[in-house]
Each structure stands twice: as structure tokens, then as C-alpha cells.
Amino acid sequence: MEDNCVRFRHLMLLFYRKGKNAIQTVRKIREVYGDDAVGEHRVRQWFAKFRQGDFTVEDRQRSGRLSSVGNDQIKMLIETNRHITTRELGERLGVPKSTIHKHLMGLGFLNAVMFGYLTN
What we know:
Arc Repressor Mutant, subunit A, 2 domains, single-stranded DNA binding, single-stranded DNA endodeoxyribonuclease activity, WH-like_DNA-bd_sf, double-stranded DNA binding
């Protein structure tokens, strides 16, 4: 997945330098890689960076610490209490609520992220 992201960014830069706009770029990439390859909003964001002179397409090093919480820990707590809130999960695991949200999204618990508790 990450390799595809960088590949698509290289293509975006190529089309940008060829004078194509974001919509044309989306169409060209989707012709080859399919409709789910890139979104128009994402391409517009990258074109804005290019216009500002930032032509870096590789992922940048991010600050912040790695999460010490694993999906298995979250699943275990959810299995013991299906009505646990994201705030409670964060407190029990010693991480911010935003970290819990990211893990829940990755696990497919969309309702938990939207409403703050688990419904499924």
C-alpha cells in the first residue's frame, strides 16, 4: 500500500509538470490503477504542495512516539465489556482517546468512533 502511495505521488508530480490539472490527473491514474486508486481531494492537496515548491513525494519522518497499545489489548477489553467507551479504553490503556479512535477505525469499529461507544 505504501509503495502505491509513493508511486501515485510520482505520477501526480509527472502530470503536474506536464501541465495537467488535478481532475485530468485523477482520470489518468484511475485509467490504469482503477477507480479506488486516488481521490480528487488528495490529488488537489498534492498539487497545492507542488505549487508551493515542495516536490518531495517520499513519506516524511513523523514525530511522535509509536503506540504501545495493540489491537489485541483493545479487542480483549471490548469482549469483556461491549459498552465500554473510547474514553474508558484510553484511560485503562494509558493512551489518548485519539489513539483508541485510530485503532478502532483500523479494526472496523466505525460506530465506536462516531458515537464514542461500541454498538456491534
